[in-house]
Amino acid sequence: MDYSLKELLDVPRLHELLRSFNEIYRMPSAVIDVDGTVLTSTAWQDICKRFHRMIPELRKFCVEEQQRAKAPARAGRHVTHRCPMGLVDVAAPIVVDGHHLGDVFVGQLFTEPPDEERFIEQAHRYGFDESDYLEAIRTVPLFTEADLHSNLTFIHALAQMLAEQGMQNLRRKEVQDALHRSDLKFRSVIESAPIPIAMNDGSGKILYLNRCFSDLFGYTVEDVPTVEQWWPRAYPDLDYRNTVASAWERELHEARTTGRPFAPIEARIVSKDGATRTALCSAIWLPESFTGTSVVFLYDLTERKKMEEQLTQSEENYRCISEITSDFVYKCSRMGDAPYSVTWAGGGLKVMSGYSPREICEVGCWMGTVHPDDRERVMAHMMAMLPGEQDVIEFRMISKEGEVRWISETSLCVAGKAAGELVRYGASRDVTEMKKVEAKLEMIRISVDAASDAIYWIRGDGRIIDVNPAACRSVGYTREEIMGMRVWDLDIQHKEDAWLRHFEELRTRGTIVFESRHKTKGGGTVPIEVVANYVHFDHQELNCAFVRDIAERKQAERERQRLQAQKLESLGTLAGGVAHDFNNILTSIIGNADLAMMQLSPESPVLGNLQRIEKSAEKAADLARQMLAYSGKGKFLVQSLDLSRLIEEMEGAIREAVPESVQLRYQLASSLPPVDADPGQIRQVVMNLVCNAAEAIGDREGVIELATGAQHCDGGFFRDAWPVHPGGEGRYVFIGVSDNGCGMDQDTAGRIFDPFFSTKFTGRGLGMAAVMGIVRGHRGGIKVHSDPGVGTTIRVFLPAAHERPKVAEAAGGTGLWQGHGRVLLVDDEDEVRSVGAELLKALGFTVVTAADGEEAVQRFSESRDFSFVILDLTMPRMDGEQCYRALHSIDPVVKVIIASGYSEQEVARKFTGEAVTGFVQKPYRLATLRDAVRKLQ
């Protein structure tokens, strides 16, 4: 090689370039030729100039090490030299046309934080001033291995490029080829640079934008071919553009005219995609041969700026959060085994404990606020934490006012800056209310688990999602087994379609109470009562059902019904027997009165007395009929009835039965199903209910409402109804009577159907008892609802019939009629036989009497020429049933009229399958007896 490196390079310009590069990146560098001559150096470290190279043996050692580093460098690879004094140099060769002309060095730097203890030892060894030596050490730059080699690559490539360009200038013949190679290498260097680089000539034309520039800002030379087009794209805001342009021109002019390095400018550049990036911009002015070309270097500060802004914002956020948070946040530290001391406190400390952060920091510890029973545990927890550990602890705190609060603290332990220092960061939260809620929830959980009633949570699609232990016990399944089921897998009543209807009704009503049966795992069934509740919870529609096993209650109800039935039967038997005997007496009284009045002239002064006797006897007979009605053995003349029409026909009588101060209202349904009932008995029911309602209102103004309707009643509907045995499930028609009178308490309402019980001073206590007897005789039921001070509603339910009611034909007229023939009159009461015989004689019959069944059979056996027999049912020795069968065995075609205080239906039940000729109910009078016997003549 004919030329040295110094001849090829423009050393002053290279020195300027490396100095500018050092201004931006703080990268010390030097170019040394093969003879060891330093052509240029920048930022040569004081530690070498002032200290290491001032010691001859060290200077000699450095020179020898540099020479040894050249040999591998000539092979074309980077050589890292680690100085025994602790510094690092990296070398790369400058080779032109295959000749090694020199080396580029970057170094006198650190690739890892320096060990100051080592350098202190070196200062003592070589007699350096320790303070000055350490100060020089701290100015040495620190780079990573990657950054070190990246920068060396750039500087070496730049020096290599300049050396080759010098060669081209010196060797004019090879200038074109050398320039081409140099340009390619230059572009390669620029293209591989880790920072954005741009080149433009003196006319303002942009010559080149490297790949890093386009990747970062998005622009290519085609986008911004000139500097004039670059400015409005990169700086669209005119004012800001002028500010940056003015600073740029000023610095560029100073660099050109004075030769000083370009002072970097920080600018906000708008990228092609509209994003704004912050960059540090610098430039160098290339020699005249480049026709005024300048190279612009940009260092992207965007991420660093973001980090700085985020750090600033984070600090501001933390400050604000610590001021407004309800948590007590703090920092404490300790050295060695010493206790922790609070160095900073904030947040909700004042609200939580009553103490201010200053009070806590002044004493240095908040441990005094911890409950004495928890203090040792909390202290042990704190002291046991090691760096990097995070934990949570709960304890009690005593506030400044003496109130005990529950605290949940999350803490983090880290190593401090000083050796042996531990730092704890803590955040304490007041969880007192949460503890109370947890305690309540635990109480609820225990209550649910311990509840004797089963509890089911069911989705709208019928899926069971949770149950309590009682539910598992009731059906014998495990919780997991039940939660895999749907309602219809357990509930007999609710199949899938029925469940969907049920849930829709539940959504509307909110709560539904009903009875059903659950299937058990063993194959049996359990009667249950369900209280279903609609709940909207956790974005779900749910049925929270409380299910009670009512097997024992059902058994108790059956027992109660049995006892009540026995009671009613006993009372009915008593009432029927009393009424029967009473009717026998009344038969004599009314019959004799009839006979006496027949024998008197209308002008007789005794006639009035007899009429009053007859009227009183009729009232007594009415009382007897009520007693028979209660016993269910009263006289029923069953017809097909429309209850709405029946009440419409009674409106006049009802109006007369209540005071004018009472308003009557009617809610009568149309097109009611018919009922099979005795119209007279039903009228008695209505009048009794209306009269009771009027008496409950008393002298004040009030309202009585009569209503009719029809509804389907299941088996559970009549559970609280009277009497105890209605007709069962099916369709029923009801009569309802409501009043706004004084009302009744539960105890009173439960006794209103007991015979002889009355709330009125003058009452006999048979009106409601008769109502119950009539309803029972019709296989119906009664439901009562009453509230003291509000009023009472009583509804009478009768089984619906299958045919529409027919209008009853009017009865025939009465008149004086005479029969003929012999009659056998059988009755154990002397007075009844006597008056009966007289009445029959008055009708033209010859009468033979018998005092009991045996005598009647004897009389009939002696002579069978009787037109008919009038036979009493209840007699000693041989009763009416036995006598009837004995007479029938003697003469199968004998005509027998049964005379009884019981109803015709009761008699018919006793003589089922027997051909009874007729019936006359006691007490009878002449007209009643005449109508019964006339049918036989």
UniProtKB/TrEMBL annotation:
The modification 4-aspartylphosphate is found at D872. The keyword Iron-sulfur does not apply. It holds the Pfam family PAS_3. InterPro entries: CheY-like_superfamily, HATPase_C_sf, HATPase_dom, His_kinase_dom, HisK_dim/P_dom, HisK_dim/P_sf, PAS, PAS-assoc_C. PROSITE patterns: HIS_KIN, PAC, PAS, RESPONSE_REGULATORY. It catalyses: ATP + protein L-histidine = ADP + protein N-phospho-L-histidine. Keywords: Coiled coil, Phosphoprotein. Residues 546-573 form a coiled coil. Residues 263-313, 391-443 form the PAC domain. Residues 577-802 form the Histidine kinase domain. SMART domains: HATPase_c (SM00387), HisKA (SM00388), PAS (SM00091), REC (SM00448). Its EC number is 2.7.13.3. CDD domains: HisKA (cd00082), PAS (cd00130). It is an enzyme of class 2 (transferase). One of its GO terms (molecular function) is phosphorelay sensor kinase activity. Residues 182-224, 314-389, 440-497 form the PAS domain. NCBIfam families: sensory_box. This is histidine kinase.
